[in-house]
Amino acid sequence: MTIRGLRWWIVVLVFLAAVLNYIDRQTLSALAPTIQADLGMDDRDYANIVNLFLVAYTVAYLISGKLVDRLGTRSGTAIFVVWWSLANIVTAWAQGLRSMGACRFLLGLGEAGVWPAASKAVSEWFPARERALAIGLYTMGATIGATVAPYLVIPLATYDYAGKLPFIEGLFGHGAGWRVAFVITGLAGILWLIPWFALYRRPRESKLISAGELALIEDGEAPTEAGEKGWTWRQVLTFRPVWLLLFGRLLTDPVWYFYQFWFAKYLNTGRGLDQGSLTITWVVYAAAGVGSLVGGWGSGVLVKNGCAPVQARLWIMLGCACLMPVSPFIAKAAGLSVTMTLTVCAVFAALAWLINISAIVVDVVPKHSIGTVFSVVAAGSTLGGIAMNMIVAAMVSGPSSKPAGFLDQGFKALFGPLIGAVEGKGYEPWFLAMAFLHPLALLLLWAGGIHRLRPAKI
């Protein structure tokens, strides 16, 4: 028996993994005001917990890509999903800053792995002209997960357990609502493993793929064999595009991280929205999902019309960079509706950019080393996210009366004058900075010759 369009069913599974990944990640963000109040954490504590997640994420990126290349997409992905699901469940028993930070660190170790695994799945199952769209589809899963998260976890957190389900209140104690949210969202990942193991194989190893679809996937490329030797670390680190793409993501991914981790808090403190009203953030994530699809579709159309893959991605990225200067007006808008409209434009552009810079990796790296190279490039993303967290925390909190942690000390040693200049200034300087990050990254990529790259020889 064969399944028609099996590659699209594969990307649907990756899409669902991304949905679960972001629901688990955004549970803390969506419930931040409630959790901070219950556990006695201020905004700097919140930033430090997010940074612990991102530190683990960075470390895991560097390891997970190589692990996926060695174990294969099927086994590697399953390991990461199980890890982060269990870490999310354990978070339900966090009692303070340290235990919450430890749980988020464990979550970060698991969650990073799905992205190099997803890029490897796309390289195995899709021809060049469909790759950006496939990446857009599974990335849209992340945005849908972030969209769904508030609607799922806020009702769970605010439910009257003491009155209607007292045994739950007795099991979890104080803060039973948000603790239940972590358990339920974590269990969903375990269930996802069932269809994954049933469907996923490499195309030539699958009994469910038709001969016509296999020919379409390979589309003139020499198929790689399981166990084929990948690049060494020296080969990876001396491949110039790795560094160009790493710095490109370091500069631009902090924009998306800001909307994931801080925008709900901005609406809460800067615009006066209460916990229940923060469900309005679904608009942001819907825009991100549309940006993911349109960005992938747009470059795919250019490739079908004869444009070289890398050049096609760069044309879309240029359009995105031209949209980002709307960012400073988000904080200055008088009404919430104008703020959200401008935010939609900025997030749409940021995600369309992200899809295409990710697709460049798949375009120019041999399939046997996709996971490793993607993970190194993506490490730049999390480093940028950590820097953003430190800067934004200083902006919104002002000077801290608490002893500085190791991340604060290290960051101040490198960027002390910058922190001093923005400390206590609120969110507006960050919205201004976001106007320039994508244009600057595009100039860097162009100056580095990224536009002259050609598809990798398999």
From TrEMBL:
Topological relation to the membrane, as annotated: Multi-pass membrane protein
Transmembrane feature ranges: 6-24, 45-63, 75-94, 135-157, 177-199, 242-262, 282-302, 314-334, 340-361, 373-396, 430-450
Major subcellular location class: membrane
Keywords annotated in UniProt: Membrane, Transmembrane, Transmembrane helix
Domain of life: Bacteria
Localization per record: Membrane
Matching Pfam families: MFS_1
Domain Major facilitator superfamily (MFS) profile: 10-453
PROSITE patterns to which the protein is assigned, alphabetical: MFS (PS50850)
Protein name stated in the entry: MFS transporter
Organism: Luteolibacter arcticus
